Amino acid sequence: IRHGAPKIIAAIGALLKLSMTACVATFVTPLNCRMHPNARQSVRRYPEVLCWEGQSEHLILMITGILGMIIPLAFLTMCFLATRYLPSYAAIGETRFLSAFAFLFAPVKASAHWYGLGMILKCFLTAFAPVCGPPLLQIAFLLSVLGFSFITGVHYLPLKTYLLNTLEVST
Length: 171
Fold this sequence. Notes:
Blueprint: H1 5-27, E1 33-35, E2 41-43, H2 56-68, H3 70-91, H4 95-100, H5 102-105, H6 115-126, H7 135-156, H8 162-169
Helix pairs in contact: 1-2, 1-6, 3-6, 6-7
C-alpha cells in the first residue's frame, strides 16, 4: 500500500460500510416483484414495470442491478481478505494495512477482529430480506440474520466499549 493510499482506502471503506444496506437494497429492487390478480407481476417500487415478461424496462433494471452489485460484492471480498490477512500483517507491524482498514478493525477488540466483517455482512444480508419470497419467509430470513448477529454479539462482546456492544446487539 502506497504512502497516501491508506487514508483513501479507509475513507472509501467507511463510506461503503455506512451505505451498504441502502446500496444493496437499491440494486435488488428489480427482483422485488409483487403478484397482481391477473397473475402478472410488477416491480414493487415501479408498478408500471412488469417482471419477467421480456420488457426492456425490467431488463434494463436487472442489468443495472447486477452491474451495481459488483461494488458491494467487491467490497465484501476486500473486507474478507483484509480480515483473513490481518493477523499476518499485524504480526509484522504493517501499520499502513491497519490504517487502511481501520473502518473494519478499529471498533472491535483484537481477539474479535472478524466481527467487523460480520457487521458488514449483516448489512449486506439484511438488504436481501424484501426479495426472499413471501412475507413469512422474509421475516424468517431477517430474524435469522439479526438473531445470529444478536447471539454472536452477546456471546463475544466484540466491540471495544460496553456502550458500543449494547448498541450493536440492540440494532
